């Protein structure tokens, strides 16, 4: 295993729009954008055009999916995700007008205006389906999205993660977002002695087949890092804990830093909770926010079971990252993983 890097100097607070608190956003819809009737018609026209040509994801490009007026709105929302509060919720797509296959195409088409799709798993999926596959965290090679258990706050291995709600669960499955910029600044204010430990980082355990035969990252991956004055975050507590079960030692001070980070993500003052409805699309900047999901109970009928569609996107304009930040261009495809399980169809 590679030697541990020395502590990095801790910078100034991030501040600004990125360092928001959930308590300040609960009573405002500023982080939501509702599609106008005209925007819906523009999407419908783009959908009809690709359907007429027999195009489906991932073959649809931005050029195949022109949005003459909505494109400017999406550019503004993308700027908000990059340079503002780091996330947005897109609402107003009438689920009763478009079936699930059509909503999936619309989601992909919108994604082409926000970035470039990257692989989400060893199956090489560019458009992933998030549903209960009857798995648990105790099973080997299982990732949280394949279960109905809660997903604690984490970031993904891409720049921008998008989530389309196709079907909501019978109970639970609430989505949450938190500003990791605000958490960085709170740790700097409250316990500046712990922040260098988070900048130094931790080894990660791999849920899927790992490049390292021990199933642990060869080097430490920083939770926070700063490049060109930009502070970025990568935080997957369950993967850090998994590495510990595989022989990586964590000092009491490091555990205290991780516990404080975790506690702040779960603090009601910091987190923002929302229930996604069919047709809603949530987009989060993985460097400025972390996201979570509560456990859920599903409908007994297969066609009604909870289903989300996920996009992992890379920004067209590269985000400044440290060399040791960790993988952020998706998860490499591994042929031996085979095809991904398919969700039940709503018909």
TrEMBL record:
A Pfam family recorded for this sequence: TauD
Organism: Teichococcus vastitatis
Organism ancestry: Bacteria, Pseudomonadati, Pseudomonadota, Alphaproteobacteria, Acetobacterales
Cofactors, names only: Fe(2+)
Protein name: TauD/TfdA family dioxygenase
Superkingdom assignment: Bacteria
Keyword field contains NAD: no
Keyword Oxidoreductase annotated: yes
Alphabetic keyword roster: Antibiotic biosynthesis, Dioxygenase, Oxidoreductase
Residue ranges of domain TauD/TfdA-like in the record: 53-312
Gene Ontology molecular function: any one: dioxygenase activity
């Amino acid at each position: 295993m590679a030697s541990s890097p020395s502590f990095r100097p801790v910078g100034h607070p991030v501040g600004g729009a990125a360092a928001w608190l959930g308590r300040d956003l609960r009573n405002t819809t500023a982080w939501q954008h509702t599609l106008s009737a005209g925007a819906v018609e523009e999407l419908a026209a783009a959908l009809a055009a690709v359907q007429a040509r027999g195009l489906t994801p991932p073959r649809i490009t931005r050029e195949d999916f022109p949005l003459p007026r909505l494109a400017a709105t999406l550019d503004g929302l993308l700027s908000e995700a990059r340079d503002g509060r780091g996330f947005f919720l897109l609402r107003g797509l009438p689920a009763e007008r478009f079936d699930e296959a059509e909503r999936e195409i619309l989601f992909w088409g919108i994604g082409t205006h926000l970035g470039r799709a990257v692989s989400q798993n060893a199956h090489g999926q560019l458009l992933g389906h998030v549903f209960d596959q009857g798995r648990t965290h105790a099973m080997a090679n299982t990732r949280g999205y394949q279960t109905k258990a809660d997903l604690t706050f984490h970031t993904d291995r891409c720049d921008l993660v998008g989530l389309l709600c196709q079907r909501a669960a019978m109970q639970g499955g609430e989505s949450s977002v938190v500003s990791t910029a605000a958490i960085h600044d709170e740790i700097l204010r409250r316990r500046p002695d712990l922040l260098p430990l988070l900048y130094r980082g931790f080894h990660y355990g791999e849920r899927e087949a790992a490049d390292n035969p021990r199933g642990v990252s060869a080097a430490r991956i920083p939770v926070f890092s700063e490049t060109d004055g930009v502070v970025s975050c990568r935080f997957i507590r369950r993967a850090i804990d998994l590495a510990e079960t595989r022989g990586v030692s964590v000092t009491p001070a490091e555990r205290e830093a991780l516990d404080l980070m975790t506690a702040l993500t779960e603090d009601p003052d910091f987190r923002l909770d929302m229930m996604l409805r069919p047709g809603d699309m949530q987009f989060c900047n993985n460097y400025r926010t972390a996201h979570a999901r509560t456990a859920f109970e599903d409908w007994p009928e297969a066609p009604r079971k909870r289903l989300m569609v996920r996009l992992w996107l890379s920004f067209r304009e590269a985000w400044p990252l440290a060399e040791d930040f960790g993988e952020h261009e998706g998860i490499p495809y591994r042929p031996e993983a085979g095809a991904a399980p398919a969700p039940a169809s709503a018909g």
